[in-house]
Amino acid sequence: MASLLIVDDELSMRQFLTHLFQRDGHSIRVAENGRKAMAMLREQSADVIISDVKMPDMGGIDLLRAARDLQPDVEVIMMTAFANEQTAHEAFLLGAFDFVHKPFDNNLLKEKVARALQKISIVHEKQALQVENDALIKGQRARGNLGNIVGRSDRMQSVYQMIETVAQVQSTVLITGESGTGKELVARAIHDLSPRAQKPFVEINCGAFTETLLESELFGYMKGSFTGATANRKGLFEAAEQGTIFLDEIGEMSSAMQVKLLRVLQERKVRPVGAHGEIEVNTRVIAATNRDLSAMVKDGNFREDLFYRVSVIPMELPPLRERGSDIAELAEHFIGKYCAQTGRSIAISAPAMRLLESYSWPGNVRELEHTIERAVALERTDLIQPERLPDQITNYNPTRISSELQLPDEGMNLTAHLDQLEKTYVLEALKRTDGNQTNAADLLKMSVRSLRHLLDKHGIRGLTAQMRDERRTGDVVPRRRTGDPYPRRRAEDFDDQGEDSGQAASAGERS
């Protein structure tokens, strides 16, 4: 049963419509003009208003405008014997549900009312689902989790609130934070809480592909566009149509790919490799990086215009060391996860938990998860003991580490000192790997592209070629081309461009 308000200045029409709709069980109220109808609406809302257009003392168009202002969800069906296109157009602009001409077919009018009520029902269902969803989210946050994200610290509550807020808009999001802080989980949570939740969530690590392969993955390709392209293939932007694409490690993207991505974000169109035309895409973009993109912009390694495009809404995730109160809850969460996989029931001892809570966790939540997975796999009792934890955790002593670092009385230039440390470690990694950038990057736990950025930053990229051309033999290194030995040269013997600084032996001394 619905509540109908019938408004017409003719008594016979009000009586007829009352009889017509009362037989269907609806609650009927009538008014002879718009002013009296508005007085009734202020006392009690209505589901549908059926109103004549021409009436004395506030006509149907004015009633429509006032009723929608007072009750935005009311549906209004207009009736008139003097229809004209301008009046109908104005009524629809003001939000009228439909229009009928007098004299009208009774079944047609009843069908229009039924469709109006169906629309109201759908809206109410959506509102009820939203209320239920909001309550569910609120309950998850109170329990210290949202999706697969765990933690009830103040820092995480702020993250949850941000996720809920940005999920309801379509703007591009840039998630920053150290490796292992859960950037992918946050991206998934944003998608799952958004209106796009029923559409695809597609992810790609931009640092895991060469420039050519990344272009093919993102934009697709046409048959015959390159060797091995035996059929047309959709790119990930198309695969995520009406959904979300997550561009992880966007800071590793080459300059050429940055230009192409910028155009997609601007035009919302992609051009598959080998195609002549473009394809429109409706895909939300969420990007993530553990690098400082603003610093990369200043250094000329990331496009400024692309930076502003992808960071419309920036989100920074806190490292685990800044939310230590979440460690115990995270540990219990991961214990439950890996116990469920093995069908075991294991808890963690108090001494082991104290070690977890005192550790600095440079690898963040990912390192904690791997630590718990290892402990569950190795533990043969029902209680995880300290011995099942890695040595770096059981031997961790922040007091001893800090005491080894001495700050000079006169102070120091911290930025310059850290740059020098960074350069020293890069040179040591290159030395150990004979200039092999891939192996050096593995030693430094970074991508090859990140290592190359550091080589350019410190002006030492030329050293890698030199090191690769040298074969170590004790203290003497034979030159490959000539075979004549000369004393080993150290990294300090080169300036920032990798050129000989003059400290190496002259050709005459070598001979």
- Count of individual beta strands: 20
CATH superfamily of the largest domain: P-loop containing nucleotide triphosphate hydrolases
Number of helices: 22
Helix % is 40-55%
Uncertain runs are 471-511
Strand order of the largest sheet: 2-1-3-4-5
Overall SS class: alpha/beta
Question: Do you know the CATH topology of the largest domain?
Answer: Rossmann fold
Radius of gyration: 34 Å
Beta-strand percent range: 5-15%
Number of domains: 4
Gross morphology is elongated
Distance between the termini: 106 Å
Largest sheet report: 5 strands, parallel
Question: CATH top level of the largest domain?
Answer: Alpha Beta
Mean of residue pLDDT values: 84
Annotated CATH architecture of the largest domain: 3-Layer(aba) Sandwich
Describe the secondary-structure layout.
Elements: E1 3-7, H1 11-22, E2 27-31, H2 34-43, E3 48-52, H3 60-70, E4 75-80, H4 85-93, E5 98-101, H5 106-142, E6 145-146, E7 149-150, H6 154-167, E8 173-176, H7 183-192, E9 201-205, H8 211-219, E10 220-221, E11 233-234, H9 236-239, E12 244-248, H10 255-267, E13 269-270, E14 279-280, E15 284-289, H11 293-298, H12 304-310, E16 313-316, H13 327-342, E17 347-348, H14 350-358, H15 364-378, E18 383-384, H16 391-394, H17 398-403, H18 414-432, H19 437-443, H20 448-457, H21 461-468, E19 476-478, E20 485-487, H22 507-510
Helix pairs in contact: 2-3, 6-7, 10-12, 13-15, 18-19, 19-20
